[in-house]
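Review this today:
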Amino acid sequence: MINDQVQKQQAGDSSTNLQGQTIVIHQGITYTDAKEIALDVYKANFLQLSRDAYEVARARAEELTDAFLEKLKKVNETAVSELSQPGMQAALFEAQKQYAITGDKNLEGLLVDILVERASTPERNIYQIVLDESLSVAAKLTTEQMDALTVNFLFSKTKHLRLINLDSLNKYFDTDIIPFLQELTETSSCYEHLEYVGCGSHMYVNHLHLIEHLFRINYPGLFSKGFDQSRFESEIGPMSDYQELLMTCFHDSARLQIDTLDIDVLNIKLEKRNISGELHNKISDLFNSTLMSDQEIKEYILKAKPEAKKLFDLWKNSSISKFALTTVGIAIAQANYRRRIGVKLDLSIWVK
């Protein structure tokens, strides 16, 4: 059997020739175009449902699409052109499909944030692949599991640079930690499922440091017991020669402490003053020797923030402190943090 189809074109200068069976051309995309493309992708791919179920699913898909495009316009307006790419359309459909099925508002917010990141990542690399995978994995998680990932992520992968005094420490617990503790439980199935879907792996030999120890190594300057003038002068020298290295102790206004939040910052200060050798070591030793013990730090935090008891109990009695995050787990954890707290972290720090 012969099927002859003759297709012939002629055109003049500066013209565009297009030939084929079915052709869709997008030369520059407006937000109206982007929405039409997004909904066409959904309609062309989602399974057929009964009329009532179809209307619910379609409304959810459109709701997610509107939220995504609105946020994309605010965050990275030029990235809307990425909607013409097959990979981005596939990512969008995955998000539409998952939200159409569940209708979970928490999931919708998470998917929208991941989609915005995905649209801003046109190059195919590990970052893009992780974002694509996160869209399908996130739909398999409960709010509790997303929050568990975020708590683990905050303590295992981040250091909060805005913790500069005790007031900021209290605020950190109020805004960044306690909101994620409300739904967390000690049940092992939570973490077994997280491992099953690829968000992390259980550490059978090692585990993360205790919460109190993590605070001691990450924010030692906040937990100094201080020293008096006589001790400083007997170990270091005349206090008048080192005023810029000293401050009033956070925990005892009658005492002093080294004016630094951690040993790395202290080393920089000492180098700028050309303090090295034995004197450098003496000042560092004074800083370290006046820190609270792990137990004292725990007692202080629990007294200042009784709500933090749940964090210490979970860290000790559940697998949250024995869970090593994968890149997908990190991506979902930081997207959940951004959704809840409104602070965007740079995922590329952890996914390269």
